[in-house]
Amino acid sequence: MKIIVTSIFVEDQDKALSFYSETLGFVKKHDVPAGEYRWITLVSPDHKEGTELLLEPNEHPAAKEYQQKLFTDGIPVTMFGVEDIHKEYERLVEKGVKFTMKPTEMDNITIAVFDDTCGNLIQLIQQ
């Protein structure tokens, strides 16, 4: 068994697709109609057959509440690994990404947290 898709709730699928592809650099894998919304997944450009990130509409009241409470409490919804967190931090800051935590060393890892502009905090980690 392996994880093939993981999802995050987003307030606006088009805005999220733009941010995750153009700003973060993920590659769109699927974008197909799914009723009122779309099935939009992205993958790492280095692992195009790897785990897909689904941009899930947060239209269900429970999803909205869950997303808002995590954001308000400063809890990231997911974690992305990077090779050089300081380089990635600088790249994203230059693109206008707002960080709530600059790269911070914790034991043998370094983490940073940013706002994805779609209702979520995302954690970066360098192991």
UniProtKB/TrEMBL annotation:
Residues 1-127 form the VOC domain. It comes from Gracilibacillus ureilyticus. This is VOC domain-containing protein. InterPro entries: Glyas_Bleomycin-R_OHBP_Dase, Glyas_Fos-R_dOase_dom, VOC_core. Pfam families: Glyoxalase. It comes from the Bacteria.
